């Protein structure tokens, strides 16, 4: 079983997708496990009333936005790692818009390398104190060339794409489809769909039953 440990300030933001999607089925079938940890639980309490748990600080470089403190993040990671065990193989990832591109090949690699535990650290605000990456020898991973507000969506994208690479998580047909990223058009019933008085037909070749021709058509659509 592959365990994802998600370090996030907002664990509840993950729950609805995890409980409704392929991630839920994969957990039920014991292919994966998802655990969340919030740095807030490992923060020092500050303030006169002792109520505020400090998880961020102002950047030394100046500028807007706060930076996540290293201590609470590292303590959350230590909790996720738990006791050392020779059978466990860890990978630690920090989500960052400037990191290594996350691709299907990367997702498949996570399964091929037989990690038992993947720790996913979600940044917020201006990101995470850079020493966390150095200390943990973590890898920065980006899910695309755009900036999101936090690492929670990247964590979800990551877990979804990696989980569907585990044999048995998807149905047989769907598993075969994993061998390629396809951009060909797909159609279902009805054969002729009428929209605003105009008729839209399924391409003839798909109704022909000629598998060779269908494959050629798919290839042509992928170009
Ligand atoms: N200037 C900061 C930087 O370059 O890291 C922007 C931080 S962003 C507002 C807050 C957090 O969202 C990041 O620390 C990261 O964890 C996550 N994030 C935003 N966009 C992302 C992307 N495209 N891929 C992966 N993580 C992303």
List keywords for this structure.
9 helices; alpha/beta; elongated; five-stranded parallel sheet; Alpha/beta knot
Write the layout of secondary structure elements.
Layout lengths: L1 E6 L4 H9 L1 H7 L3 E6 L6 E3 L5 E3 L1 E2 L9 E2 L1 H12 L8 E12 L2 H9 L4 E5 L9 H6 L2 E4 L9 H12 L8 H6 L14 E4 L2 E4 L2 H4 L3 H12 L1
Parallel strand pairs: 1-2, 1-8, 7-8, 7-9
Antiparallel strand pairs: 3-4, 5-6, 10-11
Helix pairs in contact: 1-2, 4-6
The site of S-adenosylmethionine has 19 residues, from strand 7.
Number of helices: 9
Total beta strand runs: 11
The H-level CATH homologous superfamily of the largest domain, spelled out, is SPOUT methyltransferase, trefoil knot domain
- How many discrete domains? 2
Helix content: 25-40%
Question: Given this structure, which CATH class of the largest domain is correct?
Answer: Alpha Beta
Distance between the termini: 37 Å
Overall geometry: elongated
Average pLDDT across residues?
A: 92
CATH topology of the largest domain: Alpha/beta knot
Q: Look at the helices and sheets and give the structural class.
A: alpha/beta
Ligand names = S-adenosylmethionine
| Percent of residues in beta strands | 15-25%
Rg of Cα set: 22 Å
Give me the CATH architecture of the largest domain, please: 3-Layer(aba) Sandwich
């Amino acid at each position: 079983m592959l365990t994802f440990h998600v370090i996030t300030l907002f664990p509840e933001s993950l729950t609805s997708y995890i409980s409704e999607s392929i991630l839920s089925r994969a957990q039920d079938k014991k292919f994966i496990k998802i655990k969340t940890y919030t740095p807030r639980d490992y923060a020092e309490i500050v303030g006169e009333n002792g109520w505020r748990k400090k998880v961020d600080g102002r950047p030394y470089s100046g500028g807007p936005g706060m930076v996540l403190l290293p201590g609470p993040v590292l303590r959350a990671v230590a909790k996720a790692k738990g006791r050392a065990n020779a059978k466990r193989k860890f990978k630690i990832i920090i989500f960052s818009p400037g990191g290594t591109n996350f691709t299907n090949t990367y997702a498949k690699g996570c399964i091929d390398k037989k990690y038992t535990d993947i720790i996913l650290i979600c940044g917020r605000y201006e990101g995470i104190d850079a020493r966390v990456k150095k200390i943990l020898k973590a890898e920065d991973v980006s899910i695309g060339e755009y900036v999101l507000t936090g690492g929670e969506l990247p964590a979800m994208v990551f877990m979804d794409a990696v989980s569907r690479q585990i044999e048995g998580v998807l149905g047989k047909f769907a598993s075969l489809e994993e061998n390629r990223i396809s951009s060909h058009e797909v159609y279902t019933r009805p054969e002729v769909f009428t929209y605003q008085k105009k008729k839209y037909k399924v391409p003839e070749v798909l109704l022909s039953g000629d598998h060779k021709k269908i494959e050629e058509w798919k290839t042509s659509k992928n170009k």
